[in-house]
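Our consortium's second objective concerns turning raw sequence data into structural hypotheses that experimental partners can test. To show how far this objective has progressed, the report includes one record in full. It was chosen at random from the queue rather than selected for favorable results. The single chain below, 572 residues long, was entered without modification.
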Amino acid sequence: MEQKFEFGKTIYVIIILVITFGIFLEVVRSDYILTLREYSNDSFRKESIDTNDSPVIPTDGKGEEETYLIVYDKEDTSSKDLKTNIVSTLTNIRKPNDSIPFSQIQSDLDSYSSIILTSENLDKFPNIQDLASYVENGGAVLFAVRPIPGDALYSLYRKMGVYEIGPLIQTKGIRMESNLLLKRKGVVIDDSFLTNSSLAVRLDEKVSLHATSIEGYPLLWERRYGEGMFVMFNGTMLHEKINRGLLTGAIGALQKDFIYPVHNFKLTYIHSFPAPLPKGSKSLDQEFYRDTWWPYVKDTSNQYHLSLTSGFLMSFDEEKEEGTKIPEYVKRDFVKYGRELLNQGGELALAGYNTQPLTPETDLRDVSQSVISFMKETMPTYSLTSFMPYNGKLNDHITQEFTDFFSDIDTIIPSYLEDDFGVENGVVYVPWVTNGYQYSDVVKWKMANSLTASGIFSHLITPWDEELINWRKASKDYKQMLQDISKQFPWLKSVTASEAGHLLKEWEQTDVKIFRDDQGIQIYQSMPYASSYILRTKKLVSNKQGCTVAKIDQDVYLIQTEKRICEVEVKE
């Protein structure tokens, strides 16, 4: 007699559990899960320090930090441009400064610890011997531009360490003879983008030489005179923003103990990622983009502990036509790559709907509605807080209107040539300084200046760069760049754009005073946030209190505060 086989209830339960678990795994592995997961970039806060100490800042009896007088020629555009760059540089490092034209110079200059001259025509100085007496009695003077021959120069040049003056010449490149640029002693930049009009001079043996041209002509030196110091830049390029590190170093040479704040973070940007493949792209195809470029970027970011901020596009079409729909594959790729980026601790930023720059004629309402709709379909819980303009520039006229339509966006990522790091009208600017995969002299020079002037590494790449046609060279150069920065500046902290925005906002709200006396240096901060400072001194540094001190280069120290009052002993 045949027996009928029947499944027991237990078997049914097991089958149902297996099917359910299989479905669960597929969902977890699918890109759709990202739309259910909540991602946030609002959790970052700067490290707080001990708040038990008093924030009261003394106003007398401490010998307040040095003050600077900038003298310019109001009839000379190049002199005014140089003055503007110097004022910005001093303001960024919290150094008190005043600017006056030649006609307003007073004979009593002793209220300033340093004077910076931005005109090549020294004959306009009312009484050049007042300047010599000022230095002899303990003052310091920086000639921020090469002077032209004249009576004033001929009366000073011996005191400045020059024993022979020749004609004006064109010089090329630079060779760093000292570490006025951090970690860059011995660096040679042999490139035509660095050119100067210089004096053919010979220097005496008492000069400390900081830089020469490729041809060997002196470019930057210092010479003690009496109780004070002359610092001379024998060139014409310090009016440019990309040279602010060298300018900061030259200003630092005026003082025996020079201390200034730095931000100490590194920013790594990707532009136009995720994005659909551009039509006619010669650099890569979809397979290269997916199987080679993106895995390489992820691996290098993990290896060098980078926090990526990536600006995405929804289209590469030049015109946005009404009723245009975003293809499903674009949404799918956005979710896939966006999830991987965020899981690595990165940030998604808006680069725009397409490649067209925002102008006063742009229909921002239409753009914002398209972006909002796209985000609701793909990442409904993610809030965009950063914007990366496609061409590196955001028209000043539409900045306010833009932030009105995108109310959560308070961080802008422009090109450094367009905007400085800082806060303006509640909007934070965290620009990229360098870009591309080539580790060229231009890139090295810009990086060195940014790191010296502000302690910031800020670099941008894009998957559509024509440099990627030679993938072997591009990938090797980029990795070498990251390796050098990691090895030479290990104290830099990787942050995303919005994290850097938090740091800059908190720094903007912090009042800082630096005082010096015979015992050393005192730093007073009004806000309880850890901050960093670079100290240049040939003296012995010891007995720190309320901070840590680490030697990072020859006669250069990194001070990181642990309390709102930091004291460092600096003695001969």
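The partners drew two points from this record. The radius of gyration is 28 Å. Residues 136 and 414 are 45 Å apart (CA to CA). Both points have been shared with the crystallography group to help prioritize constructs.
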